Structures are given as structure tokens and as C-alpha cells.
């Protein structure tokens, strides 16, 4: 799959930032009311990731979730990451993300 320019991708995803790390990626840090909401969000995203075979790199501490999206096979950001970011934004809103 074709790699996309991260700066261009971010223009359409205002909640996301460039990953400052070893490889191109986009990341979002989310804050929920509590662990229940955070894990509910993660469950929604996990089921989607399994369905579309595209998986976030993420971590959770209580009510906070950090997500990094990158396409390993392509070594960068692709439309698959953009699609997953859109789904994550919807799931975050549905679970009442505070940030
Ligand atoms: N997730 C992500 N984020 N990037 C990939 O390149 C990727 C994936 N590849 N999930 C998939 C699984 C691949 O390993 C399987 C074999 O399709």
C-alpha cells in the first residue's frame, strides 16, 4: 500500500500528531472519565482492528490511552491508518473522551 505524507494526512485529522520516533506514524493521546470508559473504547477499537486486520500500537494507564498508527508492511502511514484514525475518533466521541 502507498505511503502517504504525514503532514498532509494530519491536515484532515486535527486530534492527531506526528509520531516523534523511529518511524513515520500518527498518534493521539486520549483521556476518558475512568478506566471503564477507556477500556470500553479500547474494546471497540480492538474488534475493528481484528476485523480489518490493522492493529494499533497502544498503551493504557487507568483513564488514559495513547495510540500510535503506522503500517508496518509499508514502513509508514497509509490509507489504512487514516481509516483507523477516523474510526478511533468516532469511538472516542462515543465513549465521551475528554481529550
Ligand atoms: N497492523 C498494522 N498497523 N500494520 C501492519 O502492517 C499490519 C497490521 N499488518 N496488522 C498485518 C496485521 C499483517 O501482519 C497480517 C499478516 O496481515
UniProtKB/TrEMBL annotation:
Arranged from A to Z, the UniProt key words for this protein are: Lyase
Reactions the enzyme catalyzes? (4aS,6R)-4a-hydroxy-L-erythro-5,6,7,8-tetrahydrobiopterin = (6R)-L-erythro-6,7-dihydrobiopterin + H2O
Q: Which InterPro entries match?
A: PCD_sf, Pterin_deHydtase
What Enzyme Commission number(s) appear in the record? 4.2.1.96
Domain of life the protein comes from: Bacteria
Any Pfam family: Pterin_4a
- What terms describe the molecular function in GO for this protein? 4-alpha-hydroxytetrahydrobiopterin dehydratase activity
Task: Identify the Gene3D superfamilies for this entry.
Answer: Transcriptional coactivator/pterin dehydratase (3.30.1360.20)
Q: Name one GO biological process term.
A: tetrahydrobiopterin biosynthetic process
Q: Which family does it belong to?
A: Belongs to the pterin-4-alpha-carbinolamine dehydratase family.
NCBIfam families in the record, alphabetically?
A: PRK00823.1-3 (NF002018)
What is the protein's given name? Putative pterin-4-alpha-carbinolamine dehydratase
Organism of provenance: Brevundimonas lenta
Amino acid at each position: 500500500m502507498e505511503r502517504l505524507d504525514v503532514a498532509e494526512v494530519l491536515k484532515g485529522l486535527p486530534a492527531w500528531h506526528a509520531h516523534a520516533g523511529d518511524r513515520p506514524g500518527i498518534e493521539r493521546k486520549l483521556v476518558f472519565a475512568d478506566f471503564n470508559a477507556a477500556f470500553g473504547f479500547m474494546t471497540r477499537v480492538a474488534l475493528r482492528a481484528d476485523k480489518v486486520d490493522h492493529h494499533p500500537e497502544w498503551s493504557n494507564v487507568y483513564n488514559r490511552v495513547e495510540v500510535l498508527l503506522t503500517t508496518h508492511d509499508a514502513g509508514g502511514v497509509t490509507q489504512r491508518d487514516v481509516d483507523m484514525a477516523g474510526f478511533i475518533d468516532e469511538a472516542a466521541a462515543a465513549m465521551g473522551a475528554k481529550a
